[in-house]
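Quick log. Single chain, no ligands specified.
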Amino acid sequence: MSAAVTPQVTVMATDTGVNGTALTVLIILFLVVTVLGFSAARFMRGDNLDSLDEWGLGGRRFGTWVTWFLLGGDLYTAYTFVAVPAAMFATGSVAGFFAVPYTIVLYPIIFVFMARLWSVSHRHGYVTSADFVKGRYGSRELSLAIAVTGFLATMPYIALQLIGIQAVLEVAGVGGSDNWLAADAPLLVAFVILAAYTYTSGLRAPAVIAFVKDALIYLVIIVAIIYLPTKFGGWDHIFGAASDKMATTNEVTGKPQGAFVPGDGQMWAYATLGLGSALALFMYPHSITASLSSSSRNTIRRNASILPAYSFVLGLLALLGWVAIAAGTNPVGLDGEPNAQLVIPQLFEDAFPAWFAGVAFAAIAIGALVPAAIMSIAAANTFTRNIYKEWINPQASPKQEAKVSKLMSLVVKAFALVFVFTLDKQNAINFQLLGGIWILQTFPAVVFSLYTRWFHKWGLLVGWAVGMVYGTVQAYQVVNPVTGKHFGGSLDMIPMIGEMGYIALTAFVINIVISAVLTLALRAGKVDNGVDETTAYDYQADADDPRVAKDLAHGSAPLTPEGE
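-> predicted structure:
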């Protein structure tokens, strides 16, 4: 999940002293999940891990609860834990609380289309959404566009998970040294462990660790939401303090600090952020990877029904940002500058005994490991299937595919680590915001194509390109009023409507219009729209369907088309 604001990030702690008890608890829990990560290779294991189906999708045999924990661990990341309440703390409900309705809107959308993607992917052995687009249109170019977009959008997402771990380590008093090696060594160790068990166990590692991660997060949030209001004057005082802060004038902008309740002029921003984010979330490769690992199409639908439980927890988590206002939490970095991103770790360190703060730190750190592992696997699968096998080595065997994907998962994580070590952390957030804009532009080619081939492949490709360029240019032109830097947010004026809205959704509408207009022209000109290897039956196939079982036993050869 992403935040729509870009508060200035400087990951430094307010206290340079080491919190020994909290750090010890953090290390113990980290070691527990490390053991689980390596032992996960035997969890629901098939014959071996020498194929993408086994290494990258867990053998496509995860049931309802494993998929639920895996998707929850995948979508609700460490950065969610840090950024959503930080946005509530800094600028209020528009930038922070929009995440709650968007995850409520999200699951009915998933219920409708994801089961069809699962069926056709199971039927044809697709591993990525770009695989499906290639099969639907026979277009290597459109498939490459989908793959590259997913790959690029995922990279900064992985970097943000490492930043989440870094923030916890520094609040715990580790990593504040002036010596770069001493400062970065803890994060480097976490990276090596993550890379090692992901390489060894594939998707089974985050699937197993997700149980621990979610148990810790549920425990921490429920305790916090019950205990903290009693400690800081009750909810009436908390809401009052938040309302007062949001009404104060920002000395730099001359405008109110934020929004306690969105006003009339902010509804377009709030609604478009919610809808655009909901449409985009399951376009990311890691969301699709976790979904395709499930054992049946009904597993997908059951998860769409029970995943909103996470939305309830997310709402409680968001309110902790306002609890921090009432508590007087002062997240200031070693450079003396305010840093809202530190507010939740700092709140827990200030308000709880050291051992429980350690549990909360572990929840955030482990909450980074699960999505980082899934994201790196998904990005590696995308590279292997849609770039390496499609453009470099078309004759690659399943074993070669698995080997390339394992190595690429290491490269992807190493890139994210270099990104964190060498670039301003604000760049990771800027690129992640861009990633949200980019990934939404793949929606027409993926989701519309699950229902119809009316759109022309070249129309979809040009519409995607226009949406990408428009979204990138508009995001660049948003200047942060505090820092004066570009990529200062993801809201801009909506053309013809004249209201502030989510840039990604505006680009998405332009994308659809361009695709539709070009499709009309290309169809009128009778331009070839490629070969469709799927059939109507493929989109309803299930795991226990005898035709699918027979087909898979013969190497996933297509069934006789039934027409559409």
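Residues 119 and 204 are 21 Å apart (CA to CA).
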